[in-house]
């Protein structure tokens, strides 16, 4: 029994095989265990003799098992180390690094251009009051933009701002002229989404108030801005318009980036895209903020950042900017 046990132990290559051999001889129903269990039926004279031999055999098998166990463990460890060796010369895994959203990139660029012209960046709340969004901006009580079908109301007095012009008032209440600020931020309108309209979009407000500010300053500022942002070849045109908070007012279009003329999807073939509204700050608005319109004058503008970026990067649908499709975002 000892010889056959040892031969099986010697043959075992894996821990599993060794365990099988142990169970076969020393397990509960093992061959040696059976012998020890059968001792009860022996005569009192035979018992110590057989017992002694059986114990010696058990000790010898256990010693062999222990030796084999260490041997196999060593080999298995070697095997494991071999299979798990790290090839430090293998090329590493490429981690995907996120980047700024095209809107954020565009916003950073816009800020840089205006900061370069001496503007300060200020921010205002997205949830604001009817006073800052309409009343203080000289908006008549019956102005259609006040309607629920255009503006998102939270209560009768509180709304999601529909333009960044709210920041004009908040700024003029706090600062005294000379004022030269821009304010980028989110706006909300109850507009049906299409290729150029989104219920949430971005505007960049600009406001300059000082003594002797003229329409010429406004035109010059916007011209410098557009040429920086779109390139020196870009033209702008002013169209007369009407805003309650500016007088006179205008809308400004830019010639389409790269695709002026026929066939430009962003400009719908006209070759021009509407960029912003602007004008000279209405005297009532200055007065509402405690600034004397007899002494000071100013200009203001509000541009749609999403549309600026669409024009610059030839994006033909504003919704792409908010869907966060990684295949789209990776292109910027
Ligand atoms: C205004 O919001 C005025 N507050 C702008 C202004 C500021 C005028 C200061 C004078 C002085 P308007 O409603 O035209 O104006 O919007 C300005 C720009 O916001 C538009 O030219 C357009 O580029 C953008 N815009 C408006 N609605 C949306 C919309 N639903 N989705 C995307 N862009 C929009």
Fold and architecture overview:
The radius of gyration is 42 Å and the shape is rod-shaped. The longest helix has 38 residues, at 46-83. The protein has helices at 2-11, 15-26, 31-37, 46-83, 102-116, 130-133, 166-174, 215-230, 283-288, 305-313, 320-323, 326-329, and strands at 120-121, 127-129, 158-160, 179-188, 200-210, 236-243, 246-255, 272-281, 297-304. It has 332 residues and is of the alpha+beta class. The two termini are 78 Å apart. The protein has a seven-stranded mixed sheet with strand order 1-4-5-9-8-7-6, with helices on both faces. A two-stranded antiparallel sheet has the order 2-3. Adenosine-5'-[phenylalaninyl-phosphate] binds next to strand 5, strand 7, strand 8, strand 9 and helix 10.
The helix/strand class is: alpha+beta
Strand content: 15-25%
Q: Identify every distinct bound molecule in the structure, by name, code or SMILES.
A: adenosine-5'-[phenylalaninyl-phosphate]
Biggest pleated sheet: 7 strands, mixed
Strand order of the largest sheet: 1-4-5-9-8-7-6
Which residues form runs of ≥5 with pLDDT under 50?
260-265
Mass-distribution shape: rod-shaped
What is the strand and helix layout of this fold?
Elements: H1 2-11, H2 15-26, H3 31-37, H4 46-83, H5 102-116, E1 120-121, E2 127-129, H6 130-133, E3 158-160, H7 166-174, E4 179-188, E5 200-210, H8 215-230, E6 236-243, E7 246-255, E8 272-281, H9 283-288, E9 297-304, H10 305-313, H11 320-323, H12 326-329
Parallel strand pairs: 1-4
Antiparallel strand pairs: 2-3, 4-5, 5-9, 6-7, 7-8, 8-9
Helix pairs in contact: 1-4, 2-4, 5-10
